[in-house]
Specification:
- With about 230 residues, the protein is mainly alpha-helical.
- Helices cover about 80% and strands about 0% of the residues.
- It contains twelve helices and no strands.
- Helix 11 (about 180-200) runs antiparallel to helix 12.
Length: about 230
């Protein structure tokens, strides 16, 4: 995280651009929570799918800094082009997980509620003690699918960008890294979750900084696990 913060300070314009994207995504999530709460978990899955790919530009900026080059916003926006085929395949895999997650979330709602709670008192209704079983199930389902997406993509996407390997090799490397370092990767996932949740509290403003910092930090996490060839 410290290395991610250092990279953010070295190219703040790029970081704030992507931070703005995360900020808008947070507000989109809030709107869906108010208008169609059953789809919140599915949309969260979509953001988890978009997040790593959106961070490609931040990975590119960190790589440029690592090489002693000056990062460019334009270059970061097109960083995916050399590996577009592989990225498309990997995105398809994550999309399948996202669709399964969305379907599972709708099933949880359908089994628990005969009718959707009144949107005026939505949070109070969903977080009430009477719905404790729903909250536990909802959380467990989300944790399972979020974990699958995290384990599959935490190393693979920066690796595809860096080494232009195929999607299967990158995915297996990411899974192997998590299996070989379960404590470290679990702690890293917990840090990401905690920082994102805290960043969402003040009207999602924290995402302007926390989002890009975590993006840069993920590149350094990849570098520590898969050293430069």
């Amino acid at each position: 995280v410290a290395l991610g913060w250092r990279d953010f300070l070295r190219c703040p314009r790029i970081g704030l651009f992507y931070g703005g994207c995360f900020f808008l995504m947070g507000h989109a999530l809030w709107i869906v929570l108010q208008e169609a709460p059953a789809y919140v978990l599915a949309l969260s899955a979509g953001f988890l799918l978009m997040g790593p790919f959106l961070c490609l530009g931040l990975y590119d900026a960190s790589r440029a800094l690592e090489q002693g080059l000056r990062p460019s916003l334009r270059a970061s926006l097109t960083a995916w082009l050399p590996t577009k085929g592989t990225m498309a395949i990997f995105a398809g895999v994550l999309l399948i997980l996202e669709m399964l997650w969305g379907r599972a979330s709708l099933v949880v709602f359908a089994v628990t509620f005969n009718t959707m709670p009144d949107t005026a008192n939505l949070l109070q209704a969903l977080l009430s003690v009477e719905n404790l079983e729903f909250l536990i199930t909802y959380t467990v389902v989300g944790a399972i699918f979020a974990g699958l997406i995290f384990v599959t993509s935490v190393i693979s996407i920066p690796m595809i960008l860096d080494r232009q390997v195929d999607a299967i090799s990158a995915g297996l490397t990411s899974i192997r890294a998590c299996l070989q370092n379960p404590g470290v990767m679990l702690w890293w996932g917990a840090i990401i979750t905690a920082l994102v949740l805290l960043a969402m509290l003040p009207w999602f403003l924290g995402l302007l900084v926390v989002g890009p910092v975590l993006g840069h930090a993920t590149w350094h996490a990849y570098r520590h696990i898969v050293p430069a060839a």
